[in-house]
Amino acid sequence: MIRTVCCMLLALICLLGASALADAPSSLRECTTEDEALAFLLLPDETADGAAPVSARSGFIRYFAQNALKDPLFCSAYWCSTEAGDNLDLNATVSRRGNTFTDHAGTMCTRAVYAMALSYLGIDVTPGNMSVMLGVRNIDEPYDDVTELLPGVERVRHKSNVFKKMIASYLSDSSYSPVYMYLRKPNGAYHAILIVGKAEDNFYLAVDPATHFDEECGVVRVYRVRFDGSFRKIISSTFRSEQRGSELIAICQWRRTDGE
């Protein structure tokens, strides 16, 4: 009798497990919740020496944290593809001559989001790689100079209904990247996020390279935003006090042209 009951419980557990797997999104584009999207983030490996880099993988977002002091998964290797302390070391905030760098990992949100968008397409480029590729520390967004050096990828361009067309392309075609958004917050600060999915109630799922915290969850890497009808402002967000009223300054997307 006990054996029969155990077998029945085991069968039920297997059935529930199979059901959960069947309900899980098969791609990032199908995700409708933060937890579902989080499962498609490639986070750095945690080692005794700190966060270690991982390779890009098509269909996933390789996550690039910006904050070296607050984010335990900040990976310095992503921000330096040269000798540490060199002018092309994006971890450095001060040059060898003692001059302060105004642009460094902590301020390079657009570069992190661009690299995350490309990682979804399977393109293995990091913020640090970009500076080495061009031989300069600072690069103008939306990084067309970098894109031109990468085979099989191009930036998508639209003249009207930009976000609607880009999100529709992404949600229906794996050769299109998630949507890069550059914002101006109510306090005047600029920031970039990556839109990776559509949630309920007209909310969208955003991956953010900056460090956000929640009392229950700790570090938050994926959250929700909702836009006005013209997709020019954020009208609601998981972090309302910070982002509500933020204006959209630029919207970008990239796609594979080589069929991979």
Overview of this protein structure:
The protein has seven helices and twelve strands. It is α+β, with helices and mostly antiparallel strands and 260 residues long. The strands form four sheets. A six-stranded antiparallel β-sheet has the order 10-9-8-7-6-11. A hairpin with a 6-residue loop joins strand 9 (218-227) and strand 10 (234-237). The longest helix has 22 residues, at 2-23. Residues 1-21 have low confidence and may be disordered.
Shape: globular
Helix/strand order: HHEEEEHHHEHEEEEEHEE
List low-confidence stretches: 1-21
Structural class: alpha+beta
Main sheet strand line-up: 10-9-8-7-6-11
Question: What amount of the residues lies in strands?
Answer: 15-25%
Alpha carbon gyration radius = 20 Å
| First-to-last CA distance | 55 Å
Total helices: the number is 7
Helix content: 25-40%
Please outline the major beta sheet.
Answer: 6 strands, antiparallel
Find the count of extended strands (DSSP E, 2+ residues): 12
Mean pLDDT: 90
